[in-house]
Write a structure and sequence with these properties.
3 helices, alpha/beta, two-stranded parallel ribbon, 7 strands, Chitinase A, domain 3, Helix Hairpins
């Protein structure tokens, strides 16, 4: 993640990041340290698979901790008060209908750390998210995909 760009989070997303960081820096760090200590106690660490596994787990753990700390350092809480009503913005939910289709789809625009397309949460940095931003009800958003352009009509902004 970039060092200077804001990372947009909902208040719920901020809470989850803080909770994960707390868990990793306390409970999980102790668990990994215990794994390393137990592996060292087995003797020669040069050919100890348990030790190698524990050190790898430690590397991943410390990397994730640094990532979460970076998110918090650059976090900007999404405030719905900042934008005009009815405009697609980060933190808002939008209902769209693909051109030529009957079915409507609903998406909440969030920052990348909270994105989960299967749960209807799309990143403001994704092609769909970028296309929807700043649109109003009745306007069209054009999403460029590998198979060509897809046109969506904005049905509702919540």
């Amino acid at each position: 993640m970039s060092n200077n760009q804001p990372i947009f989070l909902t208040p719920e997303g901020m809470r989850k990041v803080k909770e994960e960081l707390e868990y990793l820096t306390t409970t999980r760090r102790r668990e990994v340290a215990q794994m390393i200590a137990e592996a060292k106690a087995e003797g020669d660490i040069s050919e100890n698979a348990g030790y190698d596994e524990a050190k790898t787990a430690q590397g991943f753990l410390e990397g994730r901790i640094r990532e979460l700390e970076g998110i918090l350092k650059n976090a900007e809480i999404i405030s719905d008060n900042a934008a005009a009503p009815g405009v697609v913005m980060i933190g808002r939910t939008v209902v769209v209908r693909e051109q030529g289709a009957e079915m409507e789809e609903e998406y909440t625009i969030v920052g990348p750390p909270e994105a989960s397309p299967s749960q209807g949460r799309i990143s403001n940095e994704s092609p769909m998210g970028r296309a929807l931003l700043n649109k109003r009800v009745g306007e069209q958003a054009v999403v460029v995909s590998p198979s060509g352009e897809i046109v969506f009509e904005i049905v509702k902004v919540k």
